[in-house]
Amino acid sequence: MNFKFQGKRIAGMAVVLPTRELSFLEEMKNFNFPESRSLKLKEVMGFNKRRVVEPGCCVSDLAVHGLQQLFDRGQLKKDEIDAILLVTQTADHFMPSTSSLIQGRLGLKQDMLCLDLNLACAGFVIGLMQAFMLLEQESVKKVVLINGDVLSRKASPKDRNIYPLIGDAVSITVIERDASGATIHANLHMDGTRAETLIIPAGGMRMPATPETAKLEDVGDNNLRAKDHVFMDGSAVFNFVQTEVPPMIESLLATAGTSVDQIDYFLCHQPNRFMLQKLADKMKIPHEKMPNNVVENFGNTGSATIPMVIALNFQERVQQEKMRVCMAGFGGGLAWASMLMELGAMDFNTTIEYKHKS
Amino acid sequence: MNKQEFYQRLAEILDAESVQPDDVLKQLDGWDSLAVLSVLALADSKYGASIKADEIRAVVTAADLANLVESKKK
């Protein structure tokens, strides 16, 4: 499905990182796994350091801290927020929505919309689309898109397939109208028949959490996981990305009448270095045009990875000049989405750290 | 599909000097989850074949693996 937007821009961005940092090689010592293989995984996949929340820390804690910092610095005003869109799969509660909790904790105005969107790694691009649609309304002047998860809390510490890869973070993106903004093209696809590729089986209404669903089960290769934990079919995800993402981006570029060499950067979701290099190779995109260094610094942080690619690689530049970028998110749902737009010059692009006190 | 070329690429993945058709994959030093993923990537990029990790783990010898990739080739 193709989308086209006019007259919108990203005014500013912030990434909120928990201060707690874990080292891949240190963690792998907890598994019965030869160090030589861990070193190889580090080299090929880029697993190195990651950030995870302290016990008890929720998405709203990171978001409230980040927004309060922006208010304190004068980069955003409380009263000008007309909508909060929160993309998360690890909400504070089933009810109410976490965006409402954020509104309440910050004392934002009542004349606004708070909306939670249950989306995975495609959630930054899809969240932007929703923000652009809201900005078609005259009364909506500024939308705050928040992306973030605390998925480390749902990963089994005894599951080598996923535990050492997950990072926690929140990104805050401020979107507004801009009459001089270039046309933005986007497209997206969804396939719910492959919903079980990435799933937390228990804890919802289909399979409520019980002592039984919390029991660790041997899932092969000395890995233990409970039904309460997140499951990822890694090879299915790999095949999904290599098969679906290149034609999506090619179609986006064709619709926009542009080509790879006219794009400054391809800012993709960051599952690991290996997958991104293979993706770049398949689309004949030079590796330096598709940064892949979020995982080695912070882990895979779900729908916040694209803002993190920007903050990590272009924090200064994006505040000074325009960059023509193609963004692509892909993951749980399954869902995959891409967007072609100009970034910059943003009013701010900042990284904020958060230490949780329980 | 050029089988010799496939065995050569498999050897590169396993950091081995060479791989013989009747080599049992599980007995090779470098055969681990990363090697499985690398074979997936090889099958996809060089042969246009989409294979599941479980299918790769189910085969016994290097020749079986070559046949699997060939059977999935588009």
Radius of gyration of chain B: 11 Å
Largest sheet of chain A: 6 strands, mixed
Q: What structural class results from the helix and strand content of chain B? A: mainly alpha
- The arrangement of helices and strands of chain A along the chain is EEEHHEHEHEHEEEEEEEHEHHHHEEE
Proportion of residues in β-strands of chain B: under 5%
Beta-strand residue percentage of chain A? 25-35%
Uncertain residue ranges of chain A: none
Helix percentage range of chain B: 55-70%
| Sheet with most strands of chain B | none
Radius of gyration of chain A in whole Å, from Cα?
20 Å
- Assembly state here? heterodimer
Would you write up a description of this structure?
The complex is a heterodimer of chains A (358) and B (74). Chain A is α/β, with parallel strands linked by helices and 358 residues long. In chain A, 29% of the residues lie in helices and 26% in strands. Chain A has a six-stranded mixed β-sheet with strand order 6-5-7-8-2-17, sandwiched between helices. A five-stranded mixed β-sheet of chain A has the order 1-9-16-15-14, sandwiched between helices. In chain A, helix 6 (234-256) crosses helix 7. The radius of gyration of chain A is 20 Å and the shape is globular. Chain B has 74 residues and is mainly alpha-helical. The relative contact order of chain B is 0.21.
